[in-house]
Write a structure and sequence with these properties.
8-stranded mixed beta sheet, globular, 282 residues, Rossmann fold, binds NADP nicotinamide-adenine-dinucleotide phosphate, alpha/beta
């Protein structure tokens, strides 16, 4: 799909690129010639990925670190400012970072999965949108999950409170529903700008996202899962393929168009989520 220096001169920003699907995505984008920003909360964890990319071509820096904690909206603003201060174009934003099976609240006062997966990415996207528009054609890829199909809707009060379910998977489903709704609403708002949006299920992937599952269950589960190379394929398909170039606002699974749940296609809910999100980050 991607070869050699096909994307020389293009700039991408990948959140959560320190491990798993985000790491593989960043490696593949850099290998295709893109200048890739790894927006991660830990510089120490991102360093091996930066080294892997930059040591492959010592003549040129092709990957850079941006500090980003999606749970802290001040950190999101700082991340965007550091990037925008470079006066670079932005052709691809991959909203990949996320967590599952963890409980609590973000520093900015949202349920942990919702605040991380949706609210942080909502603000980051808003702050980078003008640059994405100026750089068009450009793409915004939001890594959701088929788990969004478990969500029956969004309780706008619950997302302002700590996780209540026993392992947080109910809240994870709501966060991933918000990812799909956000990408589709964004596409409607970006019509005619040359900025296209995508949401996707990457497959069930043996990554650190399962870090809260105890041993030996984690080992057993991972035996049946995709490796992260395969797990990044649908993200890369949405990010770079010619077939998806003219599509926008749709949902993908297995590098092909798929049906999101009926609730995820509810335009009124998507518009309400947008309005609430604007207020939350203002
Ligand atoms: N693996 C699967 O089977 C699967 C299935 C469906 C969807 N997904 C989605 O795929 C995406 C990538 O997950 P993965 O499987 O690759 O898991 P992963 O290896 O755990 O990667 C998640 C990344 O997100 C980062 N992250 C977590 N909280 C963050 C925060 N507050 N601020 C900034 N970065 C944060 C992590 O950083 P740290 O390392 O610092 O925590 C890590 O780099 C997620 O959105 C996940 O929901 C995964």
């Amino acid at each position: 799909m991607m070869s050699g220096q096909q994307y020389e001169g293009k700039v991408a920003l990948v959140t959560g690129a320190s491990s798993g699907i985000g790491r593989t995505t960043a490696l593949a984008l850099a290998a295709s010639g893109m200048h890739v920003f790894l927006a991660c909360r830990s510089g120490v964890k991102a360093q091996p990925v930066l080294d892997e990319i930059n040591n492959a071509d010592s003549c040129k820096i092709k990957a850079e670190f941006l500090p980003l904690d999606l749970g802290d909206l001040d950190s999101v603003r700082h991340c965007a400012t550091v990037f925008l201060d470079r006066n670079l174009p932005l052709h691809l934003l991959v909203a990949n970072a996320g967590l599952a099976g963890q409980k609590g609240m973000t520093d900015s006062g949202f349920e942990l999965a919702f605040g991380t997966c949706h609210v942080g990415h909502f603000l980051l996207t808003q702050l980078l949108l003008a640059t994405l528009k100026q750089s068009a054609p450009s793409r915004i890829v939001v890594v959701s999950s088929q788990a969004h199909k478990q969500a029956k809707g969004i309780d706008f009060n619950a997302v302002r409170n700590p996780t209540v379910s026993s392992v947080g998977l109910k809240e994870y489903a709501v966060a991933k529903l918000a990812n799909v709704l956000f990408a589709s609403e964004l596409s409607r708002r970006l019509e005619g700008t040359g900025v296209t949006t995508y949401s996707l299920h990457p497959g069930v992937v043996a990554s650190d996202v399962w870090r809260s599952i105890p041993w030996p269950l984690d080992r057993l589960m991972k035996f049946f899962m995709l490796n992260t190379d395969k797990g990044a394929q649908t993200t890369l398909y949405c990010a770079t393929s010619i077939e998806t170039e003219k599509q926008s606002g749709l949902y993908y699974d297995g590098s092909t168009l798929a049906s999101a749940s009926s609730i995820a296609q509810d335009k009124a809910l998507a518009a309400k989520l947008w309005k609430e999100s604007e207020q939350w980050v203002s």
